[in-house]
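lol forgot to send this yesterday, sorry. struct tokens for the thing we talked abt
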């Protein structure tokens, strides 16, 4: 049945953190009965492959969309973009502290190549780590519904109408499907079994590109020696072989001149997609992308890449390959210039 509803999708946290699971359950329970809202739950956004039911569902939403996840808003937005889920950026009143710290005039003016095929609908991304009370998110979603509801189809068919308790539990506890599978098999469930499950959501690690920042300079494709990057039919950079990326390594994010490469699960906020500025130079980039001990971002990146090469049984290359047109000294000079600017 058609209606004027906003679709809300809650993306689950990785792991079994009971506090996060409770937040997801509270949100789902509150939003199911909320007029003007179609709510669904999918596994962790970053881990879902392109053919996962949850990804396909997100792609099928035609109208305004609110996506809540355990990632920085920017990381969620560009992970969605990678999956082909796009929209005009909706402004949420719930933003991370880091975002709030940035004055409007200091915000980054987009100078990247931008994304393509953006439909005329709003896409709101909310970080579930910002508030601890589900009611804050419910109120914000009500505000969004009031502000901007459009015609959509009834999408609850994805989980067969209002979810029954068993359905809710299945989505809240996907690991139990694995236990059921083990019982059926009558034996242990190895990793291969987990990978063979049709709804594979094993943890992943790959770069996500923010195209409002990316200038298509190709520094990343030159730097990465593991075949992760490629170009599309329009010669735009893209992450082509995401699972070839080395788990835990964020090296190319440190060499991207525009800080356009996000690793949503990295512990450093700037690398994980916290909304720092480049054009406004609000933040000391050399400290954010380099080491705590003052190691430059480029030195860190080269070291990390060499470690991965050696682990692969290949020879370390140091600064001799793929550090682009910018020499080591030039990079450090740029960082010194940024540091010297006063705000
Ligand atoms: S290095 Fe950064 S700006 Fe350059 S193509 Fe790669 S992602 Fe885009
Ligand atoms: S983190 Fe390393 S392996 Fe992964 S894309 Fe960047 S340079 Fe390549």
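and heres what i got for the seq, position by position
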């Amino acid at each position: 049945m058609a209606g004027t509803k906003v679709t809300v999708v809650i993306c689950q946290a990785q792991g079994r953190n009971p506090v996060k699971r409770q937040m997801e359950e509270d949100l789902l329970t509150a939003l199911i009965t909320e007029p003007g809202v179609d709510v669904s739950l999918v596994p962790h956004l970053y881990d879902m492959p392109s053919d996962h039911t949850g990804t396909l569902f997100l792609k099928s939403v035609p109208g305004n969309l609110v996506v809540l996840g355990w990632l920085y808003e920017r990381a969620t937005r560009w992970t969605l973009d990678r999956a082909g889920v796009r929209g005009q950026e909706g402004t949420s009143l719930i933003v991370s502290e880091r975002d709030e710290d940035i004055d409007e005039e200091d915000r980054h003016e987009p100078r990247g190549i931008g994304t393509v095929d953006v439909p005329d609908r709003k896409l709101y991304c909310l970080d579930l780590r910002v508030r601890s009370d589900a009611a804050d998110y419910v109120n914000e979603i009500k505000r969004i519904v009031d502000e901007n509801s459009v015609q959509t189809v009834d999408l609850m068919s994805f989980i067969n109408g209002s979810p029954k308790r068993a359905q809710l539990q299945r989505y809240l506890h996907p690991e139990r499907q694995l236990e059921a599978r083990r019982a059926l098999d009558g034996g242990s469930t190895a990793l291969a079994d987990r990978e063979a499950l049709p709804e594979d959501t094993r943890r992943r690690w790959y770069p996500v590109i923010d195209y409002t920042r990316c200038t298509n300079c190709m520094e990343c494709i030159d730097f990465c020696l593991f075949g992760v990057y490629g170009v599309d039919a329009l010669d735009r950079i893209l992450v082509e072989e995401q699972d070839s990326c080395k788990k835990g390594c964020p090296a190319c994010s440190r060499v991207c001149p525009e800080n356009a490469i996000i690793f949503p699960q990295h512990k450093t906020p700037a690398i994980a997609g916290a909304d720092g500025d480049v054009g406004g130079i609000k933040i000391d980039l050399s400290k954010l992308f380099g080491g705590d001990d003052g190691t430059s971002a480029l030195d860190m990146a080269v070291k990390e890449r060499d470690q991965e090469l050696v682990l692969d049984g290949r020879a370390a290359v140091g600064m001799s390959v793929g550090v682009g047109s910018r020499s080591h000294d030039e990079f450090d000079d740029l960082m010194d210039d940024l540091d010297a600017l006063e705000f």
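The first strand starts at residue 3 and ends at 4. anyway ping me if u want another try
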